[in-house]
Amino acid sequence: MAIKYKERTEYAGQVIGTDEHMWADGMLEEWAVVWDPVEHERKNVQIGYYGSDGQNLCGCVRCEIDFTPEIAQDIVRTALAHAEVAFTNKIEADKRTVRKGDRVRVVRGRKIPKGTELTVFWIGERPDYMGYNTEKIAGAKDDQGNKVWIKVDYLEVLTERPEPTEEEREDFIEGYLNRNVERTVLNRARRAG
């Protein structure tokens, strides 16, 4: 069973969970989390909106978690594709992140000539000019040993980063799946093959 109304049943084999929210005015909203196999995404379907008298204003009679092994596999395949993209983005961001000990080149700014190569000895934050946020700055030395303080955004990393190992990739993807896919869905997908 899935979402059952008086005369019809919807989302048979696609309901992967339910959720609810209690509003400040005392109304309770309830919805089913369903998987759309065409769009490969989650959707929330409102199944209940209860007043203080307990009456459901949506007309839904009953909702049960019910999903097929094919839906579970589709969810995991979609999450794996998202995990691959997230891993690639993480690696690219890691290559651009300035760290202590890195060799960097100045690419913006006006006080230090563009193209100057520096070695970073400190990374920190300071309030920005408005005082509401912070900005990252680097303490660095040029080849003559002169210290400079510069925004991290003005630097390009020259230090080569090692490529991640297959074990690191698998750990990232497994962690991504555990954070983003319900355990019941993972178990059903594994049992199905």
Summarize the structure in words.
This protein is α+β, with helices and mostly antiparallel strands. It has three helices and twelve strands; from the N terminus they run βββββββαβββββαα. A five-stranded antiparallel β-sheet has the order 11-10-9-8-12, with no helix packed on it. The protein has a four-stranded antiparallel β-sheet with strand order 5-4-3-7. It has a three-stranded antiparallel β-sheet with strand order 2-1-6, with no helix packed on it. The longest helix is centred in the middle third of the chain and has 28 residues, at 69-96.
Strand portion, in percent? 25-35%
Oligomer: single chain
Indicate the percent of residues in helices: 25-40%
State the order of secondary-structure elements, H for helix, E for strand: EEEEEEEHEEEEEHH
Low-confidence runs (pLDDT<50, min 5 residues)?
Answer: none
Mean pLDDT: 89
What spatial order of strands do you see in the largest sheet? 11-10-9-8-12
Using only C-alpha atoms, the radius of gyration works out to 26 Å
| Largest beta-sheet details | 5 strands, antiparallel
- Outline type: elongated
* Termini Cα gap: 23 Å
What's the tally of helices? 3
Helix/strand-derived category reads alpha+beta
Number of strands: 12
Structure in a nutshell:
With 193 residues, the protein is α+β, with helices and mostly antiparallel strands. The chain has three helices and twelve strands, in the order βββββββαβββββαα. The strands form three sheets. A five-stranded antiparallel beta sheet has the order 11-10-9-8-12, with no helix packed on it. A four-stranded antiparallel beta sheet has the order 5-4-3-7. Strands 2-1-6 form a three-stranded antiparallel beta sheet, with no helix packed on it.
